[in-house]
Design a protein that fits this description.
Chain lengths: 53, 443
């Protein structure tokens, strides 16, 4: 079976009722840090599987 | 200096761990929607850390979204009957979040208020019963979060009941408040909200310069009291030419008050903001300096920074790695796709700044009719036709992410919702090279 892929991660929640807020703090750290974090997120998702659609 | 930075990072770490523990407990009390199927795969919600994770179909199968509660495989979702699409290729099956303007009542009278809020409010404002039905519709559509605002929603006597209902339906309610009214009532229900941000458009005298009255002391007091009651408290800052040079001090303020985030919003020519736009909007030089300024401040003060969707052209100006932006879900205008808005009488809009979309077959939808409208041909009009872009957007490498910038600014300045964002540095340069009909001066 093809290994699945995380396409994007939208961090945090948006309390702002006028527009969509995106966390850009990761632009400081760059792609390397995100490349480390993404597999961890993948592992967390596999560990705690969503129960239903 | 170094010791201060280490102490600040340590405090942030402690806050993050305590926050994660609290959110796991909160999720047991109020289970939130975990997953939604999409044509590209699925969106899975995580609580600790807080994130919406977009995964392809293979990953969705691996994390069990096609299995029932006992792990048995179910038939493939109907949305997967067609070919697997790319994220962003088609509108989502429903918004990620809905921005509900619960009321247009507010006594503050800010000169740049994007809703033109007043003490009288809007005609025909909905009450608890109507907004409860709207939450039901949003939950049935698969919406993850709502952002509640106004006017000043904290003064609504039924705000807690509505937040409770959203939680019961698996939607996480978040809130923006001015902090100028309704604070005691809000403190009593602050645990219902995922995140609360207080609008703070400047420190000390700058607050009055931006808003037109001196409300800093009250907003500051509200931030302190909310932070004492709750960890997930931040500030929203509408960036104007008056407070741009104070951004570093605002990051320092957020760090000193151990706030969870600072969200920066571009000034929009909407409501009373349309009249104040020429006096308050940032200059072209400030827009070009925006990204390096905020990243330097975020690093210096160890503060998490978010920017609103309309800033994507100013991010793209610095040519960041497109793959990295895509991985962070940094998009420009996603009105009528990732997000929707609703006016105080329930009218559905593509975003909070936009007018209700053109009627389709005589239907001007309410937010409580979202699903009937969402898949209609030409729903949300120009907001979903961003691919039909004029130069220079048509040849911009970031267009698939940026989607032409802020349509509300375009409509105000050029009269055309679909025109390229006139404040985008690339658009400014393009027009300087080939003088055009735009009346916005470069300042």
């Amino acid at each position: 079976m093809r290994r699945g892929k995380i396409l994007a991660i939208k961090w945090g929640m948006n309390p702002n009722s006028s527009s969509l807020g995106v966390d850009v703090t990761f632009l400081l750290a760059g792609a390397t840090v995100l490349a480390v974090i993404t597999p961890i997120v993948g592992a967390l998702l596999r560990w705690r599987k969503p129960a239903a659609r | 200096m170094r010791a201060t930075a280490i102490a600040r990072l340590a405090a942030r770490g402690v806050d993050a761990v305590r926050g994660a523990v609290a959110r796991v407990r909160e999720a047991r009390r109020w289970p939130a929607r975990r997953v939604r199927i999409e044509r590209f795969g699925a969106i899975v919600q995580m609580i600790a850390p807080r994130a919406l994770v977009f995964v392809d179909r293979a990953m969705a199968r691996q994390v069990g979204v096609t299995a029932d509660a006992h792990g048995a495989t179910m038939p493939e979702p109907a949305l997967w009957a067609g070919p697997e699409t790319e994220l962003g290729e088609l509108p989502l099956s429903a918004p990620l979040e809905a921005h509900l303007q619960l009321t247009n009542r507010c006594d503050a009278g800010c000169q740049g208020c994007y809703t033109g809020a007043s003490a009288e409010g809007a005609p025909g404002e909905w009450g608890l019963a109507e907004w409860t039905r709207a939450i039901d519709e949003l939950a049935d559509a698969g919406v993850f979060h709502v952002a509640l605002g106004g006017g000043e929603s904290a003064t609504l006597p039924w705000l807690g009941a509505l937040a409770d209902h959203a939680r019961r339906r698996g939607i996480i309610p978040n809130l923006t408040t001015s902090g100028l009214a309704g604070l005691d009532a809000l403190l009593a229900i602050s645990d219902r909200f995922g995140q609360i941000n207080v609008s703070l458009d400047g420190l000390g005298a700058t607050y009055a310069q931006v808003r037109g009255f001196d409300g800093f002391a009250r907003a500051d007091a509200a931030i302190r009291r909310l932070r004492a009651a709750k960890r997930e408290v931040g500030i929203n800052v509408v960036v104007t030419r008056h407070n741009f040079d104070e951004l570093d001090a605002l990051f320092a303020y957020a760090a000193d008050h151990r706030l969870s985030e600072l969200e920066l919003l571009r000034f929009k020519p909407s409501g009373r903001g349309a009249r104040a736009y020429d006096q308050l909007r940032c200059s072209d030089a400030q827009h070009r300096a925006f990204l390096p300024t905020i990243l330097a401040a975020a690093k210096r003060h160890a503060v998490r920074v978010k920017v609103d969707c309309s800033y994507t052209p100013m991010l793209a100006h610095h040519r960041p790695d497109r793959a990295l932006l895509a991985q962070l879900a940094v998009y420009g205008c996603t009105g009528g796709d990732f997000l929707i808005g609703a006016k105080p009488a329930g009218q559905l809009t593509a975003c909070s700044f936009a007018a209700p979309p053109p009627a389709l077959a005589g239907l001007r939808p309410k937010v409580s009719e979202l699903r009937a409208y969402w898949d209609a041909p030409d729903a949300f009009g120009a907001f979903r036709r961003w691919r039909d872009a004029a130069p220079p957007c048509a040849t911009c490498a970031y267009h698939a992410l940026c989607r032409g910038g802020c349509k509300v600014v375009s409509a105000h300045v050029t009269g055309d919702l679909a025109a390229p964002d006139p404040e985008c540095p690339r658009v400014v340069d393009h027009r300087a090279a080939a003088p055009a009909r735009v009346r916005l001066p470069v300042v």
